[in-house]
């Protein structure tokens, strides 16, 4: 019996592959507003600021000058 001999290299054609590479997620932090509350009962400063705070709480009109 005769054996079939192939002297040419065997080439297998494959279809083109498509690879999708996703970049890693990036976390961006935006600074938010700084909320500061001041208690209305606390008055820091001189006696004039205490008088001013008392006048504002009682609704008394304050004139300038």
TrEMBL record:
Keywords assigned: Acetylation, Keratin
Classification via Pfam families: Keratin
Gene Ontology molecular function: any one: structural constituent of cytoskeleton
Any single GO CC term annotated in Swiss-Prot or TrEMBL for this entry: intermediate filament
Highest taxon, organism lineage: Eukaryota
Family statement drawn from the similarity comment of this UniProt entry: Belongs to the avian keratin family.
Subunit structure as annotated in this protein's UniProt entry: The avian keratins (F-ker, S-ker, C-ker and B-ker) are a complex mixture of very similar polypeptides.
Name assigned to this protein: Keratin
Species name: Leucopsar rothschildi (Bali myna)
């Amino acid at each position: 019996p005769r054996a079939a001999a192939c002297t040419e290299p065997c080439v297998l054609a494959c279809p083109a592959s498509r690879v999708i590479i996703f970049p890693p997620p990036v976390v961006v932090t935006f600074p938010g507003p700084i909320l500061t509350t001041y208690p209305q009962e606390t008055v820091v400063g001189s006696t004039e600021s205490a008088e001013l705070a008392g006048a504002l709480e009682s609704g008394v009109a304050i004139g300038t000058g």
